[in-house]
Amino acid sequence: MFSTYSVKVVVALAACLFLVPVASWGQTSASTQQRRNTRINAAKPEHHTPTDMARRDEPNNLSRNPTPAPQQSPSSSGANAVGASRADQPDWSAATNRNGRNSIPATSASYGRTPTVNSLQDQATEKTEGPSFTNSPVEEEEREADESEEPTPWRLFSGPLLGRHGIEANGWWANGYTWNPSRPTNRLNGPNGVNDRANDYMFHQLGLGLERAIDPSSASYQWGGRIDLMYGADARLVQSAGFDDTWHSGRFVSLATPQVYAEWFDPNLNPWGQGVTFRVGRFWSPIGYEGVPSLDRFFFSATHAFMLAQPSTHTGFMASADIGSNWSAQGGLVRGWDVTTDNNKSPGYIGTLGWLSDDEATSLTHVLYHGDETDDLSDAQTTYELILTRQLTESWSYVGWFDFNFAQRIGTNSSGDPSNAQWLSLNQALLHAINDQTSWGIRGEWFHDNDGARIANPETGDLLGQGNLFGLTLGINHTPTMNLLIRPEIRYDWSTGGLPFDDQTSSRQVTAGFDVVWSF
Q: Which of 129, 277, 287, 362 lies at a C-alpha separation of 20 to 30 Å from 385?
């Protein structure tokens, strides 16, 4: 049961978080793998920014949270109009998220398009001194053509060998530091994810991706695929049981292969769109708005829902297609949450339905998963997620996502008999692009563990009982160059119904940190 104080806190937070998007609606424009797996195993066995990062760049059609893109203008990366590449979500890593859907003017997306101080001075000089006739007309045309070209990020992996076969390669390197004034003795920031080490440098990720993307705007049969490698502290979050969980896993760094899949595109199977894309292998889960790759999040840290309520990957089969000009869908059979070797030989079902408004300012995505996660086939789990994005103005953008989970027989009641469990989360963010290189955002979150099945001691995995986690994060994205992202933030977390912070001695926590991400 909630206390009166808890109810007041929840109501007040929900009201504050929804106030801004509603008021603006009318405008046009664990320190180990066990920690992550606590969500399932607690009581049972079992894109613009300087990068073309893993999820944001994956061929469109089967990335997380698909929303249809206009058929007449497929994405530049050949993304399926299914919009799976999030081309219509708020641009969170300066400012773009995992796949860049409904992107606000990004700090590097429009790099070179907005007049700079130097460019304005140049214009003033031309007006006062008149045109220069030093160069010949041909030379002048060539100079103007060169100046009109927009700058592009530097790429380590490029050249005719890959390009000849339609293959693209990219990589990224992320490092960070988080300061916790409470100085917890276990040096952990409670249940907070990604930047879980307190007062410590973290080598978060070294990622490499190799992809042959499908272009659904082409009316021809195509094949493609992608493989990703990740090394660092965050790789533990994406290791899959029965696949790479037995690979190198040190105290602070691990190795994982979060994506290994092949694709096939058939242009004739979909009478309402541009065809159907089929994917088989291991791929990012459609569940969850924030992603594990560093540039799949606007903020340095991740939400509690990211750590406690969502899988990272699935292994199985998926198909995706557009339905008209505003709708898209995908569905498939997978082996469960973050597993490759299925513990119960029973597939789970996952599907999404996305909608994009005619003006491309609003998107709504439904995600549904149902499957058996334990050895007992009678213990099914259901996950439902709703994601809303809204372009409020040219520089303001909003995103909100809600998750609800119901799992059968994963806990025990007072009599020691198996019992069901529920947990849910509400997350919202308001983002603002200041200029081409800098943006800021504020994020609010609430995670409710109704039956004490999710919130756990990050060091031991012991459950802490029924409770709520709340968080407010203020973050900045700054891109001094097209290949470099600097992301400072300050975060305040508090809880009701337990002491998850400062080595299980406090219900509140303040942290400040930053990370630096270099893409190549």
A: 277
